[in-house]
Amino acid sequence: MKRALALLPLLSLAACGPEPARQAEICAIQALPARPGVDRFGVPPGVEREAQAVGAVYGPGVLLTGRIGWWGRCPARADTTDMLLIGPGPWALTKGGERAHGRQVSYGTCYHRQTGDGWKTVACRINP
Asked: Which residues form the domain of 53?
């Protein structure tokens, strides 16, 4: 009985994770080689404000705010990604940057677009 009660918090956290289809989408985006806050290429599309306003937001931990969901477990993730926004439309944005001794030293955004062949990175920029 005690063992069952001890597992209860773990099971409730597992329930907070994304549904399997969304988890697969999150992992596909995170497996892309682009590193937010490090890579710089392409011209960023004008979708960032809309994505921040209406996109689904995911992060590395479980937050009870309701606005940011846990991105679950993925085998690959850019070491600089702090946040993932999915939507609207075929767009996803990864945000983050490098850290030195716990202090953030760069920040940027990578833009990804879903095509018939899966997710592709379109552009990355470093915020000034």
From this structure: 18-126
